[in-house]
Amino acid sequence: MGGMKSDRKIHFSFNCAIEGFLWAVRTQRHMRYHCMTAVGVVLAGLIFRVSALEFILLVFAIVMVLFAELINTACEALVDLVSPDFHPLARRVKDVAAGAVLLVSVGAAIMGYLILSGYVFAPAGDVEASSLSEVPPGELAVFSLLTVILLVVLLKAWAGRGTPLEGGMPSGHTAFAFSIATSVALSPVGSVVALLALALAVMIAHSRVYMGIHSVQEVLAGAVVGVGVTWILHLCFG
After folding, report:
1. Into how many domains does the chain fold?
2. N or C: which end of the chain has fewer CB within 10 A?
3. CB proximity list for 183: less than 8 A, separation 6 or greater
4. pLDDT below 50 — which residues of the chain?
5. Same-domain pairing of 21 and 116
6. Can you give the chain as a three-state secondary structure string?
7. Is 29 exposed, middle or buried (0-12, 13-18, 19+ CB in 10 A)?
8. 100 and 51 in one domain?
9. Are 145 and 112 part of one and the same domain?
10. C-alpha to C-alpha distance for 238 and 219, rounded to whole angstroms
């Protein structure tokens, strides 16, 4: 009898856990996006026939993202239960939980890029040669962009003005655009392509001023951060 009760408890616990996961997928849009992305990543791993270690890392990244999203959903439900009315601290709890999901998602995206880029961008017929020991294509441009984004976030937090995606010092959109333009200019693509990338970055910067989101000084600061950081990293490691 004791064994049957123990089996029922285990069965009930598994059932509750599965119900919780299904409820999160059913009610949370971002959870559904993560699940669809996870399916796509697994299929990509199977199609490119990644190594066992690479597949383990991909699965680990997927699990971490889904875990973080589940914790975020649980925090949101708990906050809504405890504080149904608006409260600044309740908002902070939700924001921090969502920030944890964003952080894990960015880390998973980087891991996915490091693993799959060698297969996706490999020359035709040379897919099998890719491995974790090789340098992924465009790694310096990607990591320059990530460094620029992190620096912009720190500068905006220090300045204390605007929001992460709107306003503040410096302009994140401008820094992002000029970092890409600088990487393009430093790659062997030719002067015409480099000028087109620079023109696009200037248009993005102008649009931020034209829409009244940033001042000229904030846009210029973003351009300096984007160009300066990317150029220094290419100079040191290129």
Report:
1. 2
2. N
3. 140, 141, 144, 145, 230, 234
4. 129
5. yes
6. CHHHHHHHHHHHHHHHHHHHHHHHHHHCHHHHHHHHHHHHHHHHHHHHCCCHHHHHHHHHHHHHHHHHHHHHHHHHHHHHHHCCCCCHHHHHHHHHHHHHHHHHHHHHHHHHHHHHHHHHCCCCCCHHHCCCCCCCCCHHHHHHHHHHHHHHHHHHHHHCCCECCECCCCCHHHHHHHHHHHHHHHCCCCHHHHHHHHHHHHHHHHHHHHCCCCCHHHHHHHHHHHHHHHHHHHHHHC
7. exposed
8. yes
9. no
10. 27
Q: Pick from 110, 129, 148: which residue ends a domain?
A: 129
Q: Is the Cα torsion angle 200, 136, 41, 61 positive or negative in sign? A: negative
**Same domain flag for 151 and 115:** no
25 with 118, same domain: the answer is yes
Query: 51: which 2 tokens?
Result: 């190594």
Annotated catalytic residue, options 19, 54, 69, 139:
69
pLDDT of res. 164 = 66
In a domain, 208, yes or no: yes
> Does 134 participate in catalysis according to the annotation?
no
Instruction: Say how far apart CA 107 and CA 84 lie, in whole Å.
Output: 33
Cβ neighbours, 10 Å, residue 166: 13
The pLDDT of residue 136: 66
Domain of 27, in residue numbers? 2-129
pLDDT value, residue 228: 95
